[in-house]
Amino acid sequence: MKKYIKLCIVFYIYFTNIYATVVIQKNGDVIKGTIVKESEEKLIFDSSYGTLHINKEKIKKLIIDETAIEEETITYENKEIRVKHLFDHNDERIYLTNEGKIIKIKQKKQDFSVKITKRHLFSVEGKYKIERKAMPRAEKGPDGLNFILESKFLLLNGLGSSFSYMYVLNSFLGAGAFFEYEKFTAADKFETPIHIIDTSVVNKMILAGAVSQFSFLNMYGTQNNKYDVGIGAGLAYGLISSILKVSMKPNPNSPSPDENIKPLPEGAGPLEPYLEGEKRTVTLDTHLYFNYSITSMLNIVSKFGYQISLYNLIYKKTKYPETNLAPPYHEVNHLSEIGFDFPQSIYINMGLQATF
Question: What is each CA distance from 202 to 161, 205, 272, 273, 278, in whole angstroms?
Fold first, then answer.
């Protein structure tokens, strides 16, 4: 900066001594006058305030010839005047009038805030789910037929539905409540050297809880964009009910059929003991959401999420339908001693969202 000021002064002294020089200091002060002398650290400046010694370190800008600044017309104190724009400092615009007067005009700060246009968001969604379920498998052990549960992701057949209400706190954040109902089924089939065993699970789940969502785009509840993307998390309390059916038949390909299996009467089906139970549980939910606005009051909403329910050992005891014969395998009762181990699931939701 010192070299720049020195070059300007040399230029000024060499070419002219007619035009006024304008010194703009870093603190926003503006001084108009004539340079009398320059030292290594200071300028000696003749102005309307008298002779001033100005430290070069405090100078932001030096305008040698004020006539080189283009004039413009502004409104000041209800009058139109011709001025020269010198610079902007903080929220002020600094001008030099033709009479040599310095005036400062406050500028309106640009409003970068996002205007909330919708406060209430109501959503109705359908759900498709893939859940990690524990399905029973069996093997012939030294003490009879032994059942074990294996946890794996199974494709569940069925749909769920979800209703939610969100209140827009600001353009980043919303909070509300949701209600879900789900009914899903899964089936598995396997063989042992002696048996053919079919298993099926029917689950029903009713959940109600609180949820919050955070917008990545600062567009929550606004009309500034056609779409919004964000993340959400919820905590719900609900009731889970489950029925596990086990259908056992002799394996016709077995080289050594089980002697306990008796011929079934004509028209009788396989033995189908089943287990049922229910649990009250807490479910944790996290999801990504995408909203697309189709009208000013209607959005398409989609979610991709993950849930985990905090329960296990849901089944009470083994039951046998009266229409079936008495079971030959009392070891099926062992299934009541095992159950789901904190079932986890991933899901996709699609639905509509009304905004008010």
Answer: 16, 10, 15, 14, 12
Distance CA 35, CA 23 (A): 10
DSSP string, 57-80: GGEEEEES-GGGSPEEEEEETTEE
CA 240 to chain centre: 27
Domain containing 329 equals 120-355
CA dist 16 to 7, 35, 345, Å?
14, 11, 83
Buried (b) or exposed (e) across 323-342, using 16+ Cβ within 10 A?
ebeebbbebbebbbebbbee
Contact 353, 123 (CB under 8 A): yes
Whether residue 186 is predicted with pLDDT greater than 60 in this model: the reply is yes
Q: Which residue has the higher pLDDT, 220 or 138?
A: 220
**62 and 23 within one domain:** yes
Residue 6: pLDDT band with limits 50, 70, 90: low
Average pLDDT over residues 135-143: 59
Cα(107)–Cα(91) distance, integer angstroms: 5
Helices (H), the chain: 2-15
Q: Which amino acid is at 351?
A: G
pTM passes above 0.90? no
Q: How many structural domains comprise the chain? A: 2
Whether residue 113 is contained in a domain is answered as: no
Distance CA 231, CA 122 (A): 17
